[in-house]
Specification:
Shape of chain A: globular
Helix content of chain A: 40-55%
Mean pLDDT of chain A: 86
Low-confidence stretches of chain A: 117-122
Order of helices and strands of chain A: HHEHHEEH
Oligomer: homodimer
CATH superfamily of the domain at 29-111 in chain A: Winged helix-like DNA-binding domain superfamily/Winged helix DNA-binding domain
Structural class of chain A: mainly alpha
Strand order of the largest sheet of chain A: 1-3-2
Largest interface: A-B, 60 and 61 residues
Radius of gyration of chain A: 19 Å
CATH class of the domain at 29-111 in chain A: Mainly Alpha
Distance between the termini of chain A: 64 Å
Strand content of chain A: 5-15%
Largest sheet of chain A: 3 strands, antiparallel
Chain lengths: 122, 122
DNA sequence: CAAAAGTATGAATACCTGTTCATGTGTTAT
DNA sequence: ATAACACATGAACAGGTATTCATACTTTTG
């Protein structure tokens, strides 16, 4: 029997889930993840993969990096489960595994585009 | 006068705003920001400030860091406009400037809590 | 089978980053 | 005024990180 109930978000956008200082472990995991997104070339790689599944070779050409460098970075992105891959002959096709990342991109992009409301140094 | 209109998100969660590879400049700005969130101690500081406005001194005690180290980090967080401050006598009270950050925390926290669907190395 | 293509990996190096230590600046108290 | 307090800052040092280079591995092609 069909139940016509719309999915309800568990919490609205107002959510502020922090009730105490992050433990060192949790903070470390957070930092590790965000740190992964703390490199410009990795962002270029991710944005390229957001467009299409791609070979390492083409990726390297697209972002103007050495294939070796790209390969190294892909390993890191794999570790963070941000990209997936599938082998096809002697090629390896990489793709964005978690498109959720692009939401982070949007959110932060908005933050960065906010005007500088006069922030001086103390 | 109070206007009882619920805020409406401009775009649903499906948004995927990337249509081309990020420019080096844009990627750099992204990386710079995410890199700021790529340090465990900064996360602990932010989470502490999410609880309450705090002096540097108390902050240092709360996250178990040197006041100097905290001060250094606060400067970085200030630069990224993540925290604000107000002077009060010889104290300086810091606070979370952009609570939006905590949404990032929630989102990524969910990502990290996803089970490992067997991701082997190629 | 040998050569070539595509990718991965390890070591080395240059660069960046965060903490500590010492010191400086501004404010309150005696 | 002088001492004490709160915070900021610069230099120095240690640890981490990303690229390059050389090489190895795997699959395809001749």
């Amino acid at each position: 029997m069909e139940v016509p109930v719309a999915k309800v978000d568990p919490l609205p956008d107002v959510a502020l889930p922090i009730q105490q200082i992050l433990s060192v472990e949790k903070a470390q995991r957070m930092a590790e993840f965000f740190g992964t997104l703390g490199d410009p070339n990795r962002w270029r790689i991710l944005s390229a993969l957001a467009l299409a599944e791609m070979r390492v070779r083409d990726l390297a050409a697209a972002v103007e990096m050495t294939e070796s460098a790209v390969s190294h970075q892909l390993r890191i992105l794999r570790t963070m489960r941000l990209v997936g891959y599938r082998k096809q002959g002697r090629n390896v096709l990489y793709s964005l595994k978690d498109h959720h990342i692009m939401n982070l991109y949007r959110d932060v992009s908005e933050h960065l585009d906010e005007p500088d409301d006069g922030v001086a140094s103390p």
